[in-house]
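Intended use. Records such as the Putative ABC transporter entry shown here are meant for training and evaluating sequence-to-structure methods. They are not intended to support clinical decisions.
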Amino acid sequence: MGAQAVKAGQLTLGQVIALQLYVGSLLEPFWTLADFILVYQTGKTSFEKLQELIETGDDLEADGSKEIAELSSISFKNYSFSYPQAERASLQDINWTLKAGQTVGIVGKTGSGKTTLVRQFLRQYPIGQGNFFINHQSILDFKRFSIEEKIGYVPQEHILFSRSVGENIALGKVASSSEEIEQAIATAAFSQDLKRMSDGLDTMIGERGVSISGGQKQRISIARAFLREPDLLILDDSLSAVDARTERQIIQNIQKERAGKTNVIVTHRLSAVNHADWVLVLDEGRIVEEGRPADLLAQRGWYYEQYQRQQSQQGGE
């Protein structure tokens, strides 16, 4: 239309350009209004969900009144657990006692219930059916916070903040000295990586900082847990992103620095638990094999077959 008007002599080229600018200025508020309506609707929905979450009561059992001075044992007897609205149980007929000072490995194929089992310790879900004891007393007798502060849990998916490396590690223990942080870093086999970072412990990570690998994220989280010096350390497939050499170094450090303390290592790689005092093999939520690593190899069951398969894969690399 503008070109035809210029040809007909009704408008000059400058007038056409000015008209386009004015039309754009006229429409801009309407575009802004449309964006505002979209943002408002999104915000309104999010606020309603947040309000619903705040108003939702805690569906866990009432908190106990006792505090744990020292974690001496955790035991399950005929214990089963199902997630809310699940069609089948995720854990079935679990009978197992974790004693203080033990290092226990938990292995099994994906979806066998390994993570579900160790998360029972954290009381993230209502207690299942059967008996679940801490120090020979019902877990329901104890305050949840008292249980949590005795456990250092490192999941596979790690939560790091857009802060410095040092600040992320120090979250494990607020009043920690530089020597304690350095020791935790060494135990997590992260010292050499830290030396390669331009600002060392002050290196910023996340959105405002450098990008780090999955293995580095795992080791920062592991260092954070080491710093707490928990009664019970749980590594829940949290060595999956590190190479075999680094994994071996971390396991050796655990054996040395946490000798006499309680450790649970959930893993797919049997090399991470061949030093363990006891190993559980889970399948479809049940303990199908258990014993010392050497005894499980002698039984020639799932553990033996998986061990042979992984050894042959390592040999071919």
